[in-house]
Amino acid sequence: MPYADRQLPESTELFLDHIAHFVPDMDAAGAALERLGYRLTPFTHQQNSLKPGEPPVPAGTANRLVMLRRGYLEFLTSVADTPLAQQLQAAVRRYIGLHLLAFAVGDAETAWKRLQEQGFAPTPLVHLTRPVELPAGGTEDARFSVVRVPPGTMPEGRIQMLTHYTESAVWQERWMDHPNRIEELHDVLLAVADPEEAATRFARFLDRKAKKNGSGWHLETDRGALSFVAPDALPDTLPGAAVPAAPFMAGYSLISADLAASAHHFLKGGGAVEEIGSGMLKLTLPAPLGGTQIVCARGQRAPWRG
């Protein structure tokens, strides 16, 4: 099956699976998203274990999700004093907004071994669970294996790979029908001091190739892409975007099935919306969320793609 028709990768494929905003107040973040026309999954606490079958322990973080036809958006907050929650809190002190990129792989253990060989010193493989409500009643544990590296190894944020085991529980139809008609996560823009170094490092991390793209650098996965620019190039690449602290995940692009409906819901919800080209909107997200979304009609792509 072509990858465009699948939610998850096969074999050696690599997909941009989801991004995550780190937020200090989930009530405010959830209300802001709903005003913008997004449907959200319920608030759930995450748990993890280092070995399958071991009793899970609280991760110290909890989330709500915006599930999409391709990928999803995660909104994470801290709920306990754990090392993972402390990392989140430190990131929020830098800025509220996008701090995590997650890439789906067919086999997390194989990815972990490759990163070990590449010198990234990944931390022990984590088996993450969270309860998911089912449409017919009851719950199922959504299960993932997550590959992480020590804080600071990838200074741009929490960069991880994961394997999904419970697709039908995670991507439920009732959570993908957004009034604003957003359907896909497309790509991400990062502002970094040395775009060539960052792109080359990400290429080793993801086992893909990076290439020069105008004044920046670009990396394609099998579904989704990353672009890297210097902070002083950001005003030209993404006009109006401020750089709170470099490195900085400056924005990401989404695909809308109906751009007029997207604009309607963004404006109705009090979003700061700007038309920045044919078939393209820029949404500066409210303060409880932080960050910038570029929303494109199908067939269009973000301005940093050239």
List the helices and strands and how they pair.
Elements: E1 14-22, H1 26-35, E2 44-49, E3 57-67, E4 72-78, H2 83-94, E5 97-105, H3 108-117, E6 126-133, E7 139-147, E8 158-164, H4 167-170, E9 182-191, H5 195-206, E10 210-213, E11 216-220, E12 225-229, H6 234-237, E13 248-256, H7 259-268, E14 272-277, E15 280-284, E16 292-297
Parallel strand pairs: 1-4, 5-8, 9-12, 13-16
Antiparallel strand pairs: 1-5, 2-3, 2-6, 3-4, 6-7, 7-8, 9-13, 10-11, 11-12, 14-15, 15-16
Helix content: 10-25%
CATH class of the largest domain, named Alpha Beta
Number of DSSP helical runs = 7
Lateral strand order in the biggest sheet: 1-4-3-2-6-7-8-5
CATH architecture of the largest domain: Roll
CA-CA gap between termini: 29 Å
Number of domains: 2
> Which whole number gives the mean pLDDT?
93
Characterization of the model:
The chain has 306 residues and is an alpha+beta fold. The protein has 2 domains: 3-175, 2,3-Dihydroxybiphenyl 1,2-Dioxygenase, domain 1, CATH 3.10.180.10; 182-305, 2,3-Dihydroxybiphenyl 1,2-Dioxygenase, domain 1 (Roll), CATH 3.10.180.10. The chain has 7 helices and 16 strands. The protein has helices at residues 26-35, 83-94, 108-117, 167-170, 195-206, 234-237, 259-268; strands spanning 14-22, 44-49, 57-67, 72-78, 97-105, 126-133, 139-147, 158-164, 182-191, 210-213, 216-220, 225-229, 248-256, 272-277, 280-284, 292-297. The strands form 2 sheets. The protein has an 8-stranded mixed beta barrel with strand order 1-4-3-2-6-7-8-5. The chain is globular, with a radius of gyration of 18 Å. 45% of the residues are buried.
